[in-house]
What does this fold into?
Amino acid sequence: MSVYIDKSSRVIVQGITGRDGSFHARQMREYGTAVVAGVTPGKGGQKFDGEVPIFDTVADAVAQTKANVSVIYVPPPFAADAMMEAADAGVALIVCITEGVPVLDMTRVYPYVKEHGARLIGPNCPGLITPGESKVGIIPGRICMAGPVGVVSRSGTLTYEVVDQLTRAGIGQSTCVGIGGDPINGTSFIDVLEAFENDPKTQAVAMMGEIGGTDEQEAARFVHDRMKKPVVGFIAGQTAPSGRRMGHAGAIISGSAGTAAEKLEAFEKAGIGIARRPKDFVELLRARL
Amino acid sequence: MNIHEYQAKEILRREGVPIPPGEVATTPAQVEQIARRLGGMVVVKAQVHAGGRGKAGGVKLAKTPAEAAEIGARILGMHIKGLPVEKVLVTAAADIETEAYVGIIIDRASKRAVFMVSPAGGIDIEEVAATAPEKIMRLPVDPRYGLQPFEAMRMGFFLYREITKARAAARIMQQLYRAFIDSGASLAEINPLVTTPDGEVLAVDAKMVIDDNELDRRPDIAALRDESAEETGELQARRANLTFIKLDGNVGCIVNGAGLAMATMDLVKYYGGEPANFLDIGGSSSPEKVVNALRIITADAGVKAILFNIFGGITRTDDVANGIVTATRHNPLTVPLVIRLTGTNEDAALAILSKHGFPATRDMDEAVQRVVALAKEGAA
It folds into this structure.
């Protein structure tokens, strides 16, 4: 068992012939992910690296390969359409790596994907990895190690930083999920926390949030009310000024809402262990395993 | 991207929103001419990307064209929150009976565009939310159908009892919603929406923020950007495809990834330092990006030491190392540099750096502690 992906995941890469798509398709295959198809309109019938069949549409790819996961690397203006196409084709898990998707596009994509019964992770996320089984996205495989800690995060490189420190300290991960840094994304902290709570392989959770919005506060309530497994949390952006977008479209403090202090207080109240520095995760998790 | 009030008003006027006439001026003489053309009382309003213009003295009423010119001269020389006022909007003063608030924002919780309307306008909506939340009506719009007439009317009646005014407000809400969608906005507000003794409903102030991710497909909106209203370093960074935000400290930070960049700033603070900036060089960083990043950071005289914190995932750390070597070859640094770098191609990166005499570490905490100490020495 693991969360969202495992050895049996059959993955389509949308945008497999692009610069990022081709690079990461190779990385995923090297890691052992079953990349069963690629999609690039107009290149149907060709093969990627001589082995992976390319289709014109996601529907064709699903019909021919029985894929159940799709990962999207197409440029921002086409990302909304790509997510909807994957949902329409019946893909169960859609992971959108693309950064820079207009938020108004996401107001249409979100209900569409829901209605089609699919789970969307992202956009603007590093994807996910179940160490030793499957990786979908761009998280570097070599920094991960199989083990008992579920990792969920709104950022990319900060996740790598923490995962790397855990691995070096001998603490492995069940699944690492990057949910993305945009204001509207498909999967929330709560979705992933619930999945970790129900996953027998996960014994504790590391959660990395950041300033902006109320996702972390809602996650804290969920941890308090519904979780038995221990959770350790971190909030990036304690020194961020109000009203400025800190890189991620979602990382902005508006007025007094969405500050790091507000989120850390919610964590404290919910009994979540608080990592003041990324390296604190190691000791806090060790004490809880 | 922020746009000015006069630009937001032009967008709304095109949709049909009733707005008192006005024009933009850059000199006191122009202010006087416009005031004379408009006749009667005018309001002179600073056009800057900063909140609290009124409180800072950037919005003033003038009875005569001569007084308008005098006020214009004063406002055009002002700085509001550090930003120079280079333009003013001169607009006919409306005879105000009541003030309401109408706004649309993207709501993360409902994942929709949400209307917020309140009969308590003219003040900060966050203040109303805190003190009298019952005076705010929220209405999420289903993106598949858009704003329906009955929804707009419901909000109209929340603001006004009279059917004519409620109807006029409902029409303005439809127009505001269209402007919001067609401009790719993440915020659009009319504050205040006023009624006059003649029973007119008018938009007296307007604000719009555009989603940066919309600009590539909306060149007409992207053309509204006013570069003179941006901080120099931030402008240079944007041109070089970097994300940079200037802060007040003395530790310059160059990091890959927004989350790690924020966490690095926090760690600087944790160890007793003050970050001078947020700077994200992004995912696939070329040596050129590093060169640009160093140029922007070193232009800030307040920076006493510089930290690189790079976790190579997609980013190749040898690219970063080459960038550091190239950037410093022509312009040797005058402040100390601390390099933390780990991940993809780190052995190659460390070899490049040590060959050119740059020490580097793999440990983030060690690097941050060292750069904080060096910045303190430099400031002493």
In short: The radius of gyration of chain B is 25 Å. The first strand of chain B starts at residue 22 and ends at 25.
